[in-house]
Automatic annotation (TrEMBL), chain A:
The gene is coxB. Residues 114-251 form the Cytochrome oxidase subunit II copper A binding domain. Subunits I and II form the functional core of the enzyme complex. Electrons originating in cytochrome c are transferred via heme a and Cu(A) to the binuclear center formed by heme a3 and Cu(B). One of its GO terms (molecular function) is oxidoreductase activity. This is Cytochrome c oxidase subunit 2. InterPro entries: CcO_II, CcO_II-like_C, Copper_CuA, Cupredoxin, Cyt_c-like_dom, Cyt_c-like_dom_sf, Cyt_c_oxidase_su2, Cyt_c_oxidase_su2_TM_dom. One of its GO terms (biological process) is ATP synthesis coupled electron transport. Keywords: Copper, Electron transport, Heme, Iron, Membrane, Metal-binding, Oxidoreductase, Respiratory chain, Signal, Translocase, Transmembrane, Transmembrane helix, Transport. Residues 1-19 form the signal peptide.
Automatic annotation (TrEMBL), chain B:
It is an enzyme of class 7 (translocase). Residues 29-541 form the Cytochrome oxidase subunit I profile domain. Cytochrome c oxidase is the component of the respiratory chain that catalyzes the reduction of oxygen to water. Subunits 1-3 form the functional core of the enzyme complex. CO I is the catalytic subunit of the enzyme. Electrons originating in cytochrome c are transferred via the copper A center of subunit 2 and heme A of subunit 1 to the bimetallic center formed by heme A3 and copper B. This is Cytochrome c oxidase subunit 1. The keyword rRNA-binding does not apply. Its EC number is 7.1.1.9. Belongs to the heme-copper respiratory oxidase family. Keywords: Cell membrane, Copper, Electron transport, Heme, Iron, Membrane, Metal-binding, Oxidoreductase, Respiratory chain, Translocase, Transmembrane, Transmembrane helix, Transport. It comes from Shewanella salipaludis.
Length: 373, 541
């Protein structure tokens, strides 16, 4: 029997043990602040352990030696003002000693003055939007793990659920100020290596900061329940040297310029239904399928279906309106900010023709550009 | 005082008052079968109803926990889709808090308070009936919303706006309505407890002679009356924001989503103490009994309970350190939260000192009580760590918090309820429970519960957020261990069911006072306790 149990346990755990590398403690992180937070954590942990050893020690001693079965006879003391004052005052003093470093660290954490770089972080269901204030750089960062890995059709990669299409690139040794807000529900931007966890509240802006000491890739996740994709909006920061950062900034600005030219060109293009459908399907799967489902059926009572829906088979202008400007106060975001005119045209075409919607309509980038004008 | 007692009693329950003077078998005239339970105004019947209801809810919420742990057994999405997963975490929390823990304490209060203070029954027996019987409706509504199109509540038991308003499923109105009913039930229960304790104490049972269970429940009842209306306000604002176009929590209309959290936690933090103060009372009854020694520091226990209750109104924002409060507010809430550890510590020291140089034996109630002291203290330690604001930025909304509140609620509140059940079962049923089975239940529970919850501390520290249906592969091993602990803990509770059923059916006859070291009026009554506890007030030494 025991052997069987042992075999079963080995079978269950062995394949994983080889891959295991989960730290069992908080890590020190890569900023001065995260180091201080780690120290606070360790100090309070040791204090708790010490108190635990004393209290549990006394208790276990009594449990072993003051048993009835060992012939122990109960004493009959049941009060002692001195002892009680002592064990009220002593913990109080320990707490004050603990509060001093905690206060100092907290005050330092909240001091966002004199930042050299400001990044605005906007949470939206279920991705992060980063914009660099003075650099004019602006992009969305989506989960990069494919659905097939999540559903177990493919083996899971090393950074399963902790990988994004476009990481947040930040320079080391500069004070960076983060501004957090949200487009819809509350999210929370958590990067353990910086000891930063700050809520992104819709309609309000929160501030925090970091000065990164080490280059590297750091991963985190959204920490506040934000709906069904909450487990699927990771954060990846790539910290590079200041020089590398500056080159990255210029390359991004150049790329943005090129993209603008391309978008301009797209306005005068007219693509075939097939070409639009192919591009549209990709956009749909990465931006829409999480709610409206890959089969366009939605989730009854939460996310409306697009298959055969009034919007997807009705007037094109209404369809464009819903996609570009969203439906305020619902989970339907305004995609006008996130996608190019070409992508919007493709995805709307796709929705109007997929799943037997077969309207035969094609929508071109120029139509998107003209919408609402 | 005494005339008031009589008066109140006769106003409240004229029918029973006349019966009080008859022989105890008068209740044979009472309705039989289902009507006996539907119409009962007897504190023991109602206590029994509450306790069984609580146990059924415990198994219901437990089943949901099993779904959660099964999904989290491996990385990837296997069994349920994320939206259903969120419904499971939400309803698990609501059912355990409002369906399992709180009704169990009300059930214990019903059974024990009249016996402990030398009263015939609760002061307001009809309201007592009502406060129980609306509960099954509340939970039927809540649970049936899971089967509605769009599903049940999926925004966490803390239902933060705007996830619970603009972004919530259509069934949210049912959630709101069920919370209202639960709140009304709790408030009525609390009023009954207060009126009973204030008015129906036997002559000579003065305040500083009250058993600690009565004291802690009295204070809990005041907390309930103070904060349940706040919860009602919060759900009502969610209702009007969602359905009637108000903007309490909607920035676009001038509202503030963080205000929701202030309101919720102004209820929520006292609520967590509502779920632990009666436990303190239970442990303060059991530890002296099995140490055969008087409780150390009775009066400091009373003062500690009162100070915890008062402080519990000043710490709510420790759940909100990451929402972006001004530094001075963060400091204030950090200091107040740390301060709560002092009276909590006093209690633990008192229990340990009670055991010190006692003559201890380890029957099942004592095993649970000892496990309570150790494991609740571990939960207190993690609470203290969470109070340190800069460190909380790392712990918040991770499995570290999940570990914390399960240590205080499962190995705290629930273990104390188990301890209470074993301790008073002989009084309730007239039979001794099966000690061997009880011990098996204890050891299975205490081992599995630690396999279940201790590794969660590591998960949190390593960076695993709470409320996620899928996770990075580095967390796989530990989650698997946790899930195995979870299944084992869930199954172990069936042993408890077996013990209780066996004890009700029969077993060794229990004497009036089955525990050598027990003290208190309830042990002066025969076992099983008569239908009406004290028809004539007992003599208080
Ligand atoms: C020494 C005493 C305690 C201290 C200092 C303490 C402190 C804290 C803190 C700071 C948090 C917020 C953690 C976070 O979300 O980041 C927390 C969460 C929590 N605590 Fe405690 N706690 C103590 C005892 C208790 C007790 C006795 C209970 C209940 C029986 C309890 C139940 C909870 C619950 C349910 C939560 C989490 C609620 C949620 O977010 O879902 N705590 N505690
Ligand atoms: Cu989230
Ligand atoms: Cu709290």
């Amino acid at each position: 029997m025991k052997q069987w149990l042992y075999c079963a346990l080995v079978l269950v755990f062995a394949p994983h043990l080889a891959a295991a590398e989960m730290p069992l403690n908080m890590t020190q992180g890569v900023t001065e602040i995260s180091g201080k937070v780690y120290d606070l954590h360790m100090t309070i942990l040791y204090i708790c352990c010490a108190i635990g050893v004393v209290v549990f020690g006394v208790m276990i001693y009594a449990m072993i030696n003051h048993r009835k079965s060992k012939g122990a006879v109960a004493a009959n003391f049941h009060e002692s003002t001195k002892v009680e004052i002592a064990w009220t005052v002593l913990p109080f003093i320990i707490l004050i000693l603990m509060a001093i470093p905690a206060t100092k660290t907290l005050v330092a954490m909240e001091d966002t003055h004199d930042a050299e770089l400001t990044v605005k972080i906007t949470g939206s269901q279920w991705k992060w939007h980063y914009s660099y204030f003075d650099q004019d750089i602006d992009f969305y960062s989506n989960l990069a793990t494919p659905m097939s890995q999540i559903e177990g059709e493919e083996t899971k990669g090393e950074n399963y659920l902790l990988e994004v299409d476009k990481p947040l690139v930040l320079p080391t040794h500069r004070k960076i100020r983060f501004l957090m807000t949200s487009d819809d529900v509350i999210h929370s931007w958590w990067l353990p290596a910086f000891a930063i966890k700050k809520d992104a509240n819709p309609g309000f802006i929160n501030e925090t900061w970091a000065r990164i000491d080490q280059e590297g890739i750091y991963r985190g996740q959204c920490a506040e329940l934000c709906g069904k994709g909450h487990g699927f909006m990771p954060i990846v920061v790539q910290a590079v040297s200041a020089a590398e950062f500056d080159t990255w900034v210029s390359s991004q600005q150049a790329a943005a310029g090129a993209a603008a030219v391309e978008a301009e060109a797209a306005l005068s293009q007219s693509l075939s239904l097939e070409a639009l459908m192919a591009q549209g399907e990709q956009v749909y799967m990465s931006h829409c399928a999480a709610c409206h489902q890959p089969n366009g059926m939605g989730l009854p009572g939460i996310f409306p279906p697009l298959k055969g829906s009034a919007v997807a088979t009705g007037p094109i202008a209404d369809h464009l309106e819903a996609v570009i400007n969203g439906r305020p106060g619902t989970a339907m975001q305004a995609f006008g900010k996130q996608l190019t005119a070409q992508e919007l045209a493709a995805v709307v075409t796709f929705e109007r023709n997929a799943w037997d919607n077969n309207t035969g309509d094609t929508v071109q980038a120029a139509d998107v550009d003209n919408h609402g004008k | 005082m005494n005339t008031l007692t009589r008066e109140l009693n006769s106003v409240a329950e004229p029918a029973d008052q006349t019966q009080l003077h008859e022989e105890d078998h008068h209740h044979h005239q009472a309705p039989k079968g289902i009507w006996r339970w539907l119409l009962t105004t007897n504190h023991k019947d109602i206590g029994t109803l509450y306790l069984w209801f609580s146990f059924i809810m415990f198994l219901t919420g437990g089943t949901m926990a099993m779904v959660i742990r099964a999904e989290l057994f491996q990385p990837g999405l296997q069994l349920v889709e994320p939206n259903f997963f969120n419904q499971m975490t939400t309803v698990h929390g609501l059912v355990m808090v409002f369906g399992a823990v709180m009704p169990a304490f009300t059930g214990l209060a019903n059974w024990l308070i009249p016996m402990m203070i030398g009263a015939p029954d609760m002061a307001l027996p009809r309201m007592n009936n009502w406060s129980f019987w609306i509960l099954p409706f509340a939970f039927t509504i809540l649970l049936s919303s899971l089967f509605m199109e769009g599903g049940g509540p999926n925004f966490g038991w803390t239902f933060y706006a705007p996830l619970s308003t603009s972004f919530s499923p259509d069934s949210t109105a049912l959630f709101v309505f069920s919370i209202h009913i639960m709140g009304i039930s709790s408030i009525m229960g609390a009023i009954n407890v207060i009126v009973t304790i204030v008015n129906l104490r036997a002559p000579g049972m003065n305040w500083m002679k009250l058993p600690l269970f009565v004291w802690t429940w009295l204070i809990t009842a005041f907390l309930l009356i103070a904060v349940m209306p706040v919860l009602a306000g919060a759900v009502t604002m969610v209702l009007t924001d969602k359905y009637f176009g108000t903007s309490f929590f909607e920035a676009a209309g001038g509202g503030d989503p963080v205000m929701f959290q202030h309101i919720f936690w102004f209820f929520g933090h006292p609520e967590v103490y509502i779920m632990i103060l009666p436990s303190f009372g239970i442990i303060s009854a059991i530890v002296p009994t099995f140490s055969r020694k008087k409780l150390f520091g009775y009066s400091s226990m009373v003062y500690a309970t009162a100070s915890i209750a008062i402080l519990s109104f000043l710490v709510w924002a420790h759940h909100m350190f990451t929402t972006g409060m001004p530094v001075f507010a963060e400091l204030f809430f950090m200091y107040c939260t740390m301060l709560i550890a002092v009276p909590t510590g006093v209690k633990i020291f008192n229990w340990v000192t009670t055991m010190w140089r006692g003559s201890i034996s380890f029957e099942t109630p004592m095993l649970f009580a000892v496990a309570f002291i150790i494991l609740f203290t571990i939960g207190g330690f993690s609470g203290l760590m969470l109070a340190i604001t800069p460190a909380d930025f790392q712990y918040h909304d991770t499995y570290f918090v999940v570990a914390h509140f399960h240590y205080v609620l499962v190995t705290g509140a629930i273990f104390s309820i188990m301890a209470a059940a074993y301790y008073w079962l002989p009084k309730w049923t007239g039979h001794m429970y099966d000690e061997r089975l009880g011990r098996i239940h204890f050891w299975c529970s205490v081992i599995s519960v630690n396999v279940l919850f201790f590794p969660m501390h590591f998960l949190g520290l390593a960076g695993m957020p709470r409320r996620i249906p899928d996770y990075a592969i580095q967390f796989a091993d530990v989650n698997q261990i946790v899930s195995i602990g979870g299944f084992a803990f869930g199954l172990s509770q069936l042993i408890f069911l077996a013990v209780v059923l066996k004890c009700i059916r029969g077993g060794e006859k229990a004497p009036a006072k089955p525990w050598e070291g027990a003290d208190g009026l309830e042990w002066t009554l025969p076992s099983p306790a008569p239908y009406h506890s004290f028809s004539t007030p007992p003599e208080i030494k």
